[in-house]
Amino acid sequence: MTKLTYGLAFSLPLLLIGCGGGGGGSSSSSDGGNDGTSTAACRSIDELPGNAKATGRYEGSLTMKGVEYTNAYAFIGPDGKFRLIAGSGTPGQVSYISGQFENGDSTLADPDATAYFANDGDATQEPVDIAGTFDSKSEISLTSDDALAVQANMDYVEPPSGHCMESGGFSDTYTDSATNTEEPTSLTFGTDNTVTGQTIYNCRVSGNVDSYTVEGGLFFANLELSNCEQAGFDGNYQAIGGFVFDQTGTSRLVNMIIENDEFALYSQLER
Fold first, then answer.
1. Widest pairwise Cα distance in the chain
2. Within 13 Å of residue 10, how many CA atoms lie on the same side as its CB?
3. In terms of Cα–Cα distance, which of 213, 241, 58 is closest to 134?
4. Which domain of life is it from (predicted)?
C-alpha cells in the first residue's frame, strides 16, 4: 500500500511515499567546474521551443481531493518531465504528482500522469489527466477534471544567476546534518557527474546526473539506494532538481525531488 508521511528540512517540506513508512531525508552535492565567469554554455529558457519555455522551479499552492496545501514545490524540465510535491503542514496530508508533459505550444498536458494522495491514513495512487497553462518564467496553473480535482497555482522561482552545470562550479558535498543529526544526508557530486553518499535510513546512494544545460542549473538523475536500514527502500530512483549558482558561478545549494513508484522526497541541501 502506498503511504505518505510529512517532515521538514531547512523549513521546506520533505515528503515520503513508501510501503513501510518513512521519516525525513535529503540529499547533497559537490562543487567543481570552471570559474563560472560566462554562461555562454547554458541555454536560455527564452530560447526553448513551445511549452519547453515552462522549464524551471516553482513553488505555490495545490488543492487535491479538497485538501489545500500551501507548501507545494515543482520542477519542470525542458524535455517535459515534471514532478510536483506538496504538504499541508498537517501530518498525514501530503500529495505528489509525476508526469511528462506532451510537446505543445502554449499549454501543458499529460493525460497519463500519476497522483499520490494521503489524508489521515487514507492513501491512494491514481492516474490523473493534467492540463494547464503557463507564463514563461512567471507562473503555471494545473488542473484535472476528475475526482481528484487538482488545482495548482505556482510561481516561478527566479535563480540568482543564469549559470548551469556546464558553466558553474558544483562538485562538492552538500548535507542536511545541521537539521537532521540522527540520519544526516550527505551526497557528493563529482566533476564527472557521479553522485554518491547516504540519505534517509542510512541508505547508500549512487548514480549519475545528466545536466539539462539550461539556465538555473536544472538536471535529471538516475540513482540507486542500497543497504537501507528500513525494509522497502532499496531500489532504483529518479530525481529532478537543480543546483543554485550565485553570480560568480559557484553552487551554494542543491534541491531536488527523488522518487520512484513507492517513494518521493523533496530535499534542499547546503554546502
1. 51
2. 20
3. 58
4. Bacteria
**93 touches 120 (CB < 8 A):** yes
Question: What is the C-alpha to C-alpha distance for residues 265 and 271, in angstroms, rounded to an integer?
Answer: 19
What ranges make up the beta strands (E) of 41-121? 56-64, 67-76, 81-87, 93-100, 107-119
What percent of the chain stands above pLDDT 90? 64
> Where does residue 122 rank: exposed (0-12), middle (13-18), buried (19+ CB within 10 A)?
exposed
Name the nearest CA neighbour of 93 among 153, 18, 15.
Answer: 15
Map grid coordinates 535529471 to a residue.
220
What is this structure's pTM?
Answer: 0.87
- Cβ neighbors of 218 (< 8 A, separation 6 or more) are 55, 56, 57, 75, 77, 78, 164, 211, 212, 240, 241, 242
Q: Which of 63, 102, 65 is nearest to 84 (CA)?
A: 63
Q: How far apart, in whole angstroms, are the C-alpha atoms of residue 144 and residue 245? A: 34
Residues 199 and 9 sit within 8 Å (Cβ to Cβ): no
Average pLDDT rounded to a whole number, residues 107-118: 92
Backbone angles phi, psi at 49, to 5 degrees: -80, 150
Domain ranges of the chain: 26-40+160-262, 49-156
pLDDT in tens, 130-185: 999 999 999 999 999 999 999 999 999 999 999 999 999 999 999 985 555 567 78
Give the whole-angstrom CA distance, residue 161 versus residue 250. 10
Measured CA to CA, the distance from residue 261 to residue 51 in angstroms comes to 26
